[in-house]
């Protein structure tokens, strides 16, 4: 008999808090236990209270599925690892400039500055989990502008719960502007049936191009026929800031450089 296991899917994640909503699926057993960190759960551990929407801002959680009808059956633990998001805020106060670094979930932030070059490099790190390295230019005054030549990350809540037409437009824009989506969830509702739904998730750090998402949606349509789509995308990556500028200018999308753009 094969050992029990657990499948964990990230349904959504709030980058401002680091809290993720997980879908937990027991395989071969009847109950899922969990412990924070790398420690394998025991019979004294807490049970998952909601398999469809388990919310947590922990960095690591280890799950274990137990077969209550066969307590001696082997069970394989599974450790889920969250993502650390590192953000910055540049502001002036009392004639002085300040750079605020924020990690979510909370984690120690390590940074360095080079006196010969006005640049800050920072990373958040805890329990073996590390954020992406942040590079932030510091100028003589607070200038919040997009550099057309540098890579760019765009975080925007406008791409949450996109209906079918808007989802296809987003896929088209990803192709046109050579960008990649991250933190993707797509729900496919079969048009001919109110009771059939498929879902796809590509959680951090997986990235998908517009062409890859287009192929995925067309593959689902080949299988299920006409489908209605609801799509979530958390972040979009550009190789050049100019591609981002061309996109937002074309669609007249307002943006907050300080809160939404990272270079």
Overall residue-averaged pLDDT value: 89
Q: How many helices?
A: 4
Radius of gyration: 21 Å
Given as residue ranges, the uncertain stretches (5+ residues, pLDDT < 50) are none
- Strand coverage percent: over 45%
Question: How is this fold's topology laid out?
Answer:
Blueprint (H helix, E strand, L loop, with lengths): L4 E10 L4 E9 L3 E6 L9 E2 L6 E3 L3 E7 L11 E4 L3 E9 L2 E9 L4 E6 L4 E8 L2 E2 L3 E4 L14 E4 L8 H13 L2 E12 L6 E13 H15 L2 E12 L2 H11 L5 H4 E2 L1
Antiparallel strand pairs: 1-2, 2-5, 3-4, 3-6, 6-7, 8-9, 10-11, 11-12, 11-13, 14-17, 14-18, 15-16, 15-17
Describe this structure in words.
The chain is an alpha+beta fold. It is 16% helix and 46% strand. The chain has helices at 164-176, 210-224, 241-251, 257-260; strands at 5-14, 19-27, 31-36, 46-47, 54-56, 60-66, 78-81, 85-93, 96-104, 109-114, 119-126, 129-130, 134-137, 152-155, 179-190, 197-209, 227-238, 261-262. Strands 16-15-17-14-18 form a five-stranded antiparallel beta sheet. The mean pLDDT is 89.
